[in-house]
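Hey, can you fold this one?
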Amino acid sequence: MDKSSRKALKEQYQNRKIVGGVYCIRCKDRDEVWFRATEDMQGAKNRFQFFVSTDSCPEPSMMDAWKESGASGFSFEVIEEIERNETQTDREFSDDVNTLLELWLEKNQNLDP
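Sure. Predicted structure:
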């Protein structure tokens, strides 16, 4: 890869839209839901797909359900997304995402194991 191509790719990466938010992992068979926050929604989706494709449990708290239902019994659902503003620091964006998670957990107290 030549220097100009590398520079263009770097610039494209730095100028991409950063989208975070709240998602849940749902076990259909056991009617259990785990709410999570992320500063990188696409990365979270990719990680979940990797776990499903390798039949590996994403978190210890899900292990019993994963063993019982298998990877096909789980789904990844985006609950709410927020886009990072150009003026936000990493910390400010992280705080916003975590506040959004807290709001969703309050709304769904009876669903989060």
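The beta strands are 19-27, 32-38, 74-83. Let me know if you want another pass with a different chain boundary.
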